[in-house]
Amino acid sequence: MAATTVPLLLLLAATVAAAADLSVYHNVHPRSASPLESIIALARDDDARLLFLSSKAASAGAASAPVASGQTPPSYVVRAGLGSPAQPMLLALDTSADATWAHCSPCGTCPASSLFVPANSSSYAPLPCSSSMCPILQGQPCPDRDPFDSAAPLPSCAFSKPFADASFQAALASDWLHLGKDSIPNYAFGCVGSVSGPTSNLPKQGLLGLGRGPMALLSQVGNMYSGVFSYCLPSYKSYYFSGSLRLGAAGQPRAARYTPMLRNPHRSSLYYVNVTGLSVGRSPVKVPAGSFAFDPSTGAGTVVDSGTVITRWTAPVYAALREEFRRHVAAPSGYTSLGAFDTCFNTDEVAAGGAPAVTIHMDGGVDLALPMENTLIHSSATPLACLAMAEAPQNVNSVVNVVANLQQQNLRVVFDVANSRVGFARESCN
């Protein structure tokens, strides 16, 4: 741990104009007046997300381009356009998926209230099964050429994907993708044409794949964004916010602290970083040796993810963190469990400022000091607060740590793929 680094809580983000800057909205309408109850409800779907993150491709080096990445969609969306002329749509941000997809007309079983209509776009083109991207999506194999007509066109690439308790069928296609003032031609995406099974957990919007694989945004645009994007995620508690997705090197925060980005060939879409330790207040958390070690063969390590709600630590790490946090708080009546949280306490019994900050230490001297709003979730109905982190479920994910979006809120997180690094800087999005 680098004791000489400046805490990221004090860093300010630069405000220089960017290549493309899109407003980010959370598509979560709190189900309770209490922030605590709202987060508990959101985090119920994290198990399916963690299952997706902890799964790995069948063989080393295998490409992976998941179309659907968890039981519910990621919580943050941007306004985009697809086609010529541009048809407006919402796309969920997903840093752990590669493929962009949209609900397409005609689709009587799609849950979306508005569908992309390929027939209304002059630039829409289905991609054939011979496309290099079809195998990435595990599309249906191409038939043999007709021996009597070798010039006959091959059928379009069709594929199906499971999603929660349902599945959908889609075609691989290309069209113009419009992000802010930028327009990207021949962008490959999945055009969903039918859904089978229950649709209650299916997203009502499409998805923008921001992973690291060959179908992801940065891979498809070449040098257009210099291999860099960032986002600032607004709090779930805020109805008025100015979150943003910033595409390109211009306007990224000059004061950001960077940690190396690691690559797992089994899960090539994910953004791994090397966590070296945790602190509660000024006290280091005593974890077993090797608890944060990156191991591509098992998937172990730490992932920065936009779609998981609350940060999860593997069992030995979380047990040590919880013990140190409780030692600092010293709640007289002890601690209770609520939803995914097991360290909830009566705030009337704890002196103001009694809850310590949690700091995540990473390679490169990055000390990510989480402000109280990213560490503690309060109930507005009762004098109750909970440590806003949890243990990774043993039956889902026992090796991967996930730094989730609740802990990333009001931070500018920079994914600099070109230079293999992830950066952090403080920035208010509320």
UniProtKB/TrEMBL annotation:
Entry GO MF terms:
aspartic-type endopeptidase activity
Q: Which PROSITE patterns match?
A: PEPTIDASE_A1
- Name the GO terms of the biological process aspect: proteolysis
Keyword check for Glycoprotein: yes
Q: Where is the Peptidase A1 domain?
A: 76-425
- Keyword Cell cycle among record annotations: no
Give any Pfam family that matches. TAXi_C
The active site is formed by D94, D305
Sorted keywords for this record are:
Aspartyl protease, Disulfide bond, Glycoprotein, Hydrolase, Protease, Signal
May I ask which residue range the UniProt record assigns to the signal sequence? Answer: 1-19
Family (UniProt): Belongs to the peptidase A1 family.
Database matches in PANTHER family = ASPARTYL PROTEASE AED3-LIKE (PTHR13683:SF839), ASPARTYL PROTEASES (PTHR13683)
**Name assigned to this protein:** Peptidase A1 domain-containing protein
Q: Which organism is it from?
A: Triticum aestivum
